[in-house]
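Ticket #4471: structure export looks truncated?
Reporter: QA, pipeline team
Priority: medium

Steps to reproduce: submit the single chain below to the structure queue and open the exported record.
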Amino acid sequence: MTLHRIAVHGVTYAVRDLGSGPAVLLLHGFTGTGASLDALALDLREAGFRTLAPDLLGHGASDAPADPARHDVARQAADLAAVLRDRGAVPAAVVGYSFGGRVALRLALDAPDLVTTLGLIGSGPGIADPAERARRRAVDEDLALSIERDGVAAFVDRWEALPLFASEEALPAGMRARRREERLAQRPEGLAASIRGAGQGAQEPLVDRLGSLRPPALLIAGSIDTLAVARARAMAEAAPTGRVAVLVVDGAGHAAHLAAPDVVREAILAHLSAAGPSGPALSTVPGRQTAPAPVSAPGGPTAPAPAPSDDHHRIPAPTALPRRTP
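Actual output as written to the record:
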């Protein structure tokens, strides 16, 4: 896989840019890379889209600035706007998972003319309550120190044991192995700077700006990830009427796109097909109800919901495509 190295605002991003047609920017979660969303990217390209999948700062082959402030969600959103312009990929749809979803939302709010439509998986607008945000900063700092002190392998063991990722045990062994390998390949200094500068404790919350959201949005959450479900519903209420659709995937956890790839793929393709630069406010999942009322879709065996968690941690008309095997 060839990575384009794109310098913007004093940093360099590694970007996978493949296919032709309308552009879709794909943003991975914490500890991932642009390759994390390869399966979805391939489906999108087969449906006639061009996909751009950068490694976010501190991750993969992109730069890892030592200053945590350079990892700020707003600054990375501005970087990605410049990346899209550099690649001649504007306007673009934007789909982000977890941490990548927070960057995607900031991009959609700050540069709405560049974003045709928005998709968030297991993500939200950040923490509005100042006291809770301060508590989160302390937790993030503890995690960053543990990464620096103990190294990536020990961190990955700790990370994968979190209740947030318990549902990943049901994923195919090969998929789990690839996910772990990707995490183990990260740089400790990159992850530490990212969690300090782009974690929810550091992020400026976007709750008060949701009323100005312009691109139509699809919010996807696994039913087991109860906090993500609550966030999605709250975002739909805060956004302009009819602007946001919510899909709750039964039996899926934080990474609904891994637990139920067919459901998520069909929902995203339907959303992209229905929404354009000034297109319909609501996306439609075929045969299912549209938001703001939550939608449920089968994603696998239903499991008991763990305690609410968040997108980092809690520490003590679609194109028909062949079904893929992970």
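Status: closed, not a bug. The export was complete when the record was re-opened. Leaving a note from the reviewer for reference: The chain has one domain: 4-298.
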